[in-house]
Amino acid sequence: MRSLRQTTEITTEYHAFIDCEALALRYHFGEERILKAARNLSREAFLRLFLSFHGMKPIGRWQSHTYVKIVDSLTDEKHFFLIPIPRTANGEVPHIRLVNNRVCVDEFMTDIVPQSIPYTTPFWYFHYNPNREDTPFYSMTLNLSPSCSEKCTLCAGAKTGRVNNGMDETLPVHTFVDGIFDQYPEAGKQLENMAIVTGCFDDFNQMYNHLKAAQIAVRKHANPQTFAVLEHNIVTEDDYEKIVGELGFDVYITLECFDQEMRNIALNGKVGRKGRDSREFIEMARTYANYLDARPHLGKHLVHVTYLVGIDSLEVTQEFFRQLDEINKTLKHTKVIPWMSIFTPYNEPMKIIQRKDFSLSFLYQVMDMAETYFGKELMVNSSGGTQHGYARGLY
């Protein structure tokens, strides 16, 4: 008797109607939270996390994941997300593959299609947002400080080539920025958001000078509404005054995971400043939130703390959310929220830091907790979701 996989490999007939409840029963034994999602969410919303959990053999440029896009049938929003390499699992697993340029799951043909990322280089890239394809240059990220002594195990940039750790010097800002706008002159009119990924500078002044130089270089060509920096070296109120008050940056505090034992593994021990105790990152968020709350005229009301779902246990995740919530209870104008991505290993060594109990139900439980503490609307709109082009977004 043929297995389901063998049957779908040889047949040319696929079901256009995707039975999400059947998939939940087939591979997740009707777990209550998964069955609820299969019955109540749009089929695209269910499939997005189903595929993010199970994975598929990579197709295209990268050997660790495949970028895809889908339109949600309930909201009409486009979602851009990645399907990681397949999980190592016992028992029957879904047969996920590409057929006629569409993702198939067992006997079901989906409307999910591959999506390339244009305008991407090792040192700068224009952010891809499926809902902003008419303005592809609306958001840019610069990464001109590739040298980093910390060598974090989970550093996505290092694995994808956006960071070149073989270079010791920060690249000349004006040279690169001028070249970008010469190559893409339309960016001068379209650019709305400018993000800086700095790597790890030896001291605060080096970072400040780099951010200021990048801002000046960009403003020669465009007038973005927001500047953002992903950092862990902005600690004191004086630091925030210089970066936020003076330069006008939004700061994304790069925590990643909260369990200190896991941080020591994921961040290659306590090397450099990124490897500090997670409680220090909570204090950074508190300091930043209090700084903004006392200055509502700045118009910045959210503090984002980057967080990778799947490294911490559910209990640790809940404690992390609880501590952010305790900060929020003291604020009038500001809210601290997690900027949440699904941790997707690029290779076998990275799988070591993923929870052994990581599951599709695990993802839904984290979503439930986040919505309890921060509200569903805020999570959907402000936590780095796939409808905004963040391919690893939990939402």
Tell me what the structure shows.
The protein is α/β, with parallel strands linked by helices. It has 3 domains: 4-114, no CATH class; 117-231; 262-395, no CATH class. It has 14 helices and 13 strands. It has helices at residues 4-10, 20-28, 32-40, 43-54, 156-160, 173-183, 187-190, 204-219, 237-246, 260-266, 278-293, 314-328, 360-374, 376-382, and strands at residues 65-71, 78-84, 96-99, 102-105, 108-109, 113-114, 124-126, 139-142, 193-197, 226-231, 249-256, 302-309, 335-342. The longest helix is centred in the middle third of the chain and has 16 residues, at 204-219.
Biggest sheet character:
7 strands, mixed
Provide the succession of SSEs: HHHHEEEEEEEEHHHEHEHEHHEHEHH
> Judging from the principal axes of the Cα atoms, what is the shape?
globular
What is the strand tally?
13
Structural class: alpha/beta
Distance between the termini: 40 Å
User: How many distinct folded domains?
Assistant: 3
**Number of separate helices:** 14
Assembly type: single chain
Mean pLDDT: 89
How many whole angstroms does the radius of gyration measure?
Answer: 21 Å
* DSSP strand content: 15-25%
Strand arrangement within the widest β-sheet reads 7-8-9-10-11-12-13
Low-confidence stretches: 5-11, 156-165
Which range best describes the helical content: under 10%, 10-25%, 25-40%, 40-55%, 55-70% or over 70%? 25-40%
